[in-house]
Every structure is written in C-alpha cells, then in structure tokens.
Amino acid sequence: MTSTSRLLTGGPPGDPTIDVFDLVTESWASFRTTYTPTAADIQAGVTDGWPYPRQLCNDATIQIAHNKIMMYIFGGDHGTTSVGCNLFMELDLTTRKWRRLTGYVRPPKHDDYTCPGPDLI
C-alpha cells in the first residue's frame, strides 16, 4: 500500500481480506491479514482463531491513524450478541497483523459495565 492508496474494506470489517483502492492507478488490490489469539483473547471470547464470529462485523467504527500505518476497529455487531460488542482491534498495515487491544467478543457471564447489553437483575 502506498501513500496514494485509499484503504477500503471488502465487505464487513471482520473479514481477514482487506481491499485497497489506489487513487493514482484507479485499481483495486486485496491482501490477507492474520491474527494469532493470545490466552487473554481466548478468555475474551475469541474462538476459531479469529476475533469476529463468522468473520462478520457490522456497524463498527473504523479509523486509520499513525501516518496511515494502523487501522482501528471498535465495537460493532457480529450477529451472536443481542446488542453488539466492545471489541477494540488494531491492524498494523505494514505487517498485516491484527491484535486485540481490549474488549470482549461476547459479554462475560458476570456483568461488566464496559460491555453493551442489557443488565441482568
């Protein structure tokens, strides 16, 4: 990816394939990203080696920062929760590797005020 490229995701942001549109050549390219869950990620609900169930994430906030080197995704709905999640992910665009910064894929069994969803009474 060059400084003239505009990063656009191909499909939902939870997909491991990222599509890039180059503004100079006016052409599309794709690249695969990787993710290796840590023990803390697994405790946060990551299963099957990818943070988003079914590689799906809708209605998330996406931001590119740090001289267009990092992409951040926060929240979103992946279809396995009633309200959404508070997952905060970072993609290093040079190494093409994801890492979970904080949050849960699904709310924990015990209430956590940082997670979206109805409170259990």
Automatic annotation (TrEMBL):
User: Sorted alphabetically, which InterPro entries does this protein's record hold?
Assistant: Gal_Oxase/kelch_b-propeller (IPR011043), Kelch-typ_b-propeller (IPR015915)
- Top-rank lineage group of the source organism: Eukaryota
Protein name listed in UniProt? Galactose oxidase
